[in-house]
Design a protein that fits this description.
By secondary structure, this protein is α/β, with parallel strands linked by helices. Helices cover 39% and strands 22% of the residues. The protein has a seven-stranded mixed beta sheet, sandwiched between helices. The chain has a six-stranded mixed beta sheet with strand order 9-8-7-10-11-19, with helices on both faces. A three-stranded antiparallel beta sheet has the order 5-6-20. The relative contact order is 0.14. The structure holds nicotinamide-adenine-dinucleotide. Nicotinamide-adenine-dinucleotide binds next to helix 8 and helix 9.
Length: 476
């Protein structure tokens, strides 16, 4: 059984939870110790005790540890990619790419302790100088989802450690293997006891204990809107810093003048790769009239040629849905869209394979309107809907007609429309002639409205959440 990490010790519990391969439910990847309230409290105590010394650690030490961890993750990308594909169902090449990205994120943040400077300004009062510096926030709670089980923990833990915080890390129940491997690598890279604590276990117990504990100074959360709202509600009475990354209903606008092949490639990649289980997935395809039929036919043809199957098998394009519950959610969303007038053009069938897994062929639903549930609520599966619109103005208005605001894309050859869309799409990220999913790790990531709350993640902007600004005045 894979243990918890508390105060520098690997700790087992009486209860373990199997980590099941969604491509083959007979394959148990591992069993993970399940923390309860007392283990969560012990981890928070350990992180609290370790915080002052770690906050004072010299930048070289923090940099070296993150660099060593990044190098190991990169060196083991194939092996860890296999683990990721097994536990989450991402096809092997994408799983390896995610691990490599995590390694690069660690190496990127290894530079931050050395790069982080302050400012020195004259005061408006004669004879006074001002220094502006950054200091750690303290104990950071990190709560992550299952869909990027290596990259998301890396892009939260690395900046937390880089800016001198200690961490209590609670990964998703469905994909604890990568989280465990990452914690093991970081611990062996030289972290002092208590700086990083790993709690595998149920969100309702372990996560909730973190939310309720005033010793946790900040929480960075990625997951569903419902859980995000809990994080926020529990943090409000404590005046705690929170960062929430939640769902999306991301539009990809395709205009009449788009390069058809490019638009189809962007739609298929953005909507269906990684089984559509990406917060940035292009789940709404908003298409103008003159290109609509050609675009829909080409996407349907491309989907019919994709292979849904075991994540580790050569030639698989679309891996399994993460579990039976998510598969039922996907099927129910398709059925509801049809009941409301949508037409299932292709896909949406359970696919039988040699192994028992949660396979669903990629579904394209046409003839939908913006008010339907399929265009309002996140599905989080290989399901996309098409909305036909007259022109660019209607496309933009439709793209913005959602509570979410994570990423918005447009396919067009027109500089005028591309520029207008970049300005007026209500989203934290905009893509032109690219899939909505697939972002770089050195620039800000995040959205607006129901998709995100708090400072941006990733790149230099991560400093806003993971450090606190101090202004010091000195009379000379
Ligand atoms: P989820 O909200 O069910 O779980 C996320 C995490 O919260 C898990 O670790 C879970 O154990 C924990 N949790 C559950 N109840 C809790 C509680 N009461 N207190 C504290 N923690 C609790 O989400 P999920 O199903 O794992 O992930 C899918 C969701 O994540 C989708 O909505 C997707 O859009 C979103 N997501 C967003 C981004 C982004 O950056 N915007 C990235 C990836 C995924």
């Amino acid at each position: 059984m894979k243990p918890l990490l508390i105060g520098g010790e690997w700790v087992t519990t009486s209860h373990g939870l199997p980590n099941v391969n969604p491509s083959d439910v007979s394959d148990i990847v591992d069993v993970h110790a399940q923390a309860g309230r007392s283990e969560a409290e012990a981890a928070i105590a350990a992180a609290t005790a370790a915080a002052p010394a770690w906050g004072r650690t010299d930048p070289q030490t923090r940099s070296d540890i993150l660099h060593r961890a990044g190098e190991e993750v990169l060196r083991r990308a194939d092996e860890l990619g296999r683990l990721l594909a097994r536990e989450e169902g991402k096809v092997l090449r994408d799983a390896i790419a995610e691990v490599a990205r995590a390694g690069r994120i660690l190496r990127y943040f290894a530079g931050e302790p050395l790069r982080t400077g302050g400012q020195f300004l004259p005061s408006v009062r004669p004879g006074v100088n001002i220094e502006i510096t950054r200091e750690p926030v303290g104990v950071v709670g990190i709560i992550t989802p299952w869909n990027f089980p290596m990259a998301i923990p890396a892009w939260k833990i690395a900046p937390a450690l880089a800016w001198g915080n200690t961490v209590v890390f609670k990964p998703a129940e469905l994909a604890p293997g990568c989280a465990w491997a990452l914690a093991d690598i970081l611990q062996r890279a030289g972290l002092p006891a208590g700086v990083l604590n790993l709690l595998t276990g149920p969100g309702s117990v372990v996560g909730q204990t973190m939310l309720d504990d005033a010793r946790v100074d900040a929480i960075s959360f990625t997951g569903s809107q419902a859980t995000g709202a809990r994080v926020m509600a529990a943090s409000a009475p404590l005046q705690r810093k929170v960062q929430l990354e939640m769902g999306g209903k991301n539009p990809l606008v395709v205009l009449d003048d788009a390069d058809l092949d490019r638009a189809v490639a962007a739609a298929v990649d953005g909507a269906y790769f990684s089984t559509g289980q990406r917060c940035t997935a292009s789940s709404r395809l908003i298409v103008t009239e003159r290109i609509h039929d050609r675009f829909v036919s080409a996407v349907a043809e491309r989907l019919a040629g994709l292979r849904t199957g075991h994540a580790l098998e050569d030639g698989t394009d679309i891996g399994p849905v993460v579990d039976e519950a998510q598969l039922r959610i996907d099927e129910a969303a398709i059925a509801r869209a049809r009941a409301q007038g949508g037409s299932l053009r292709v896909g949406g069938d359970r696919v039988t394979q040699a192994t028992e897994g949660f396979f669903l062929s990629p579904a394209l639903i046409t003839e939908t309107t913006s008010d339907m549930a399929i265009n309002r609520e996140e599905v989080f599966g290989p399901v996309a809907s098409v909305i036909r619109v007259r022109d660019y103005d209607e496309a933009l208005a439709t793209a913005n007609e959602t509570d979410f605001g994570l990423c918005a894309g447009i396919c067009t050859e027109s500089l005028k429309y591309a520029s207008d869309f970049k300005r007026n799409a209500r989203a934290g990220m905009v893509m032109v002639n690219l899939p909505t999913a697939g972002v770089d790790y050195h620039v800000p990531f995040g959205g607006t409205r129901a998709s995100s709350f708090g400072p941006r993640e990733q790149g230099a902007f991560a400093a806003e959440f993971y450090s606190s600004v101090k202004t010091a005045y000195t009379a000379s």
